[in-house]
Amino acid sequence: MKGLLKPETRRISDLLQGVNDAEFVLPRFQRSFVWTKNQVVELLNSIYDQIPIGVFLLWDSDQLGEAFRFIGDIVPPEAKPRRHSKYVLDGQQRLTSLLFALRPENLHLPEAISSKYEIYFCIDDECFYGKRPDKKKVSPQVNWVRKINSLAFMQKPQRITLLIS
Question: Can you tell me the distance from the alpha carbon of 64 to that of 79, in angstroms, rounded to the nearest whole number?
Fold first, then answer.
């Protein structure tokens, strides 16, 4: 039946690939990305702790036209305007946060964005942080990871639910 919402689940890595392939785009009326670094860190910690982060509401359209822009206003290197894309109606802040924090290897973000959303993961307490604490205040045995776009994190069991109309 036409017009019903169709739930679909995807892994984080699949979502980011969808952004790279321009499968997911923003309608022009969508506001710009406004989340702070702390909000991005909270999102990553929620995903890591397998806390639900809500759903993404997408509009499946075959009438792309010119009324779209790329997620985060970043044009992915592999993206080509597609005849059939999904407009992100709800979830743009979360999706852009994942893009900026986990940034796929082939996506080169402007330095202003790249440095602003540099996130650290403390292996010992299994928690994300917006900055690495001062070494003088932290035990030298604490292990930190700066680059968090590892396949292991993106393949976490938690899946993201998409509602497609």
Answer: 14
